[in-house]
């Protein structure tokens, strides 16, 4: 709020309170009215800057003298005790205003310091995570390229294919980490807005699994032919699915499957992701969507951004996400996304 508006609010609020007190003057002693006006000045000091607050102190003192200290409707004060009280009121109002303003500045500086420390901690966490997550695929790419260059003409076709595949896998890992960082930046800045389009959720999941996980046999998508055609952001859906599936594959043993289900109810597209890993201690579940959070004593790998990005995309779609430990083990994510559906498909499903 700019200074001019603060001055106006101070003046209006004092006039309103004084009008109320003036009609109650027969029931309230003018000394009690002084305390009430001091309370008003204190409230101004907690909200406004120092100069509007000083104006509040001066204005309230003058009005109190003119309207409430006998003889009223004059600035003359006949009683020495009232003169002393008026001076004390003015001093107390000014001191109170200045002290509260300084206290507010101290609190603001403390909050800024806390925010800086928090930002620095997040930066160090991110830097430590990325130093491994980015260095590993980069080293794999550089090493494979060096081998191809140094042993050109000496490598068998099979070894050449293996090195090229290693470069491709490392490139995908690198792209995934960079994409997550960009997505988190866009989500926090509010520049990432959903672009809604009609899509077949079943087909989209088949495409996502094929393009990003090479139809990994561990991923079991349960086709639901009763789903209507939904209007939503396909890119957001893909980012949600990729990050949850990657997280599930990372923490689930090779012999366990990840089950993905979908349904439609009460205008919501309902997506479920179940893995059968070790799950998460219940005390850590409330923090699973926090940036850079990783459950203590878990395997290394990941920056702790994946699930916070999932939450960001779900929020951007005006949806909600719940997570709980699966029975007997693992995690289950339930995602509810409000969607528009086609009338033709609704008829087909009736």
Q: What would you say this structure looks like, in words?
A:
This is histidine kinase. Pfam families: DUF4118 (PF13493), HATPase_c (PF02518), HisKA (PF00512). It comes from Flavobacterium nakdongensis. Its main location: membrane. It catalyses: ATP + protein L-histidine = ADP + protein N-phospho-L-histidine. It is a single chain. The protein is an alpha+beta fold. It has 3 domains: 3-108, no CATH class; 134-189, no CATH class; 197-349, Heat Shock Protein 90 (2-Layer Sandwich). The protein is built from 10 helices and 8 strands. It has helices spanning 3-23, 30-47, 50-67, 80-133, 135-150, 157-189, 201-213, 234-251, 306-316, 343-349; strands at residues 197-199, 219-221, 230-232, 258-265, 268-274, 320-325, 331-338, 340-341. It has a 5-stranded mixed β-sheet, with helices on one face. The chain has a 3-stranded antiparallel β-sheet with strand order 1-3-8. α1 (3-23) runs antiparallel to α2, α2 (30-47) runs antiparallel to α3 (50-67) and α3 packs antiparallel against α4. Residues 346-350 have low confidence and may be disordered.
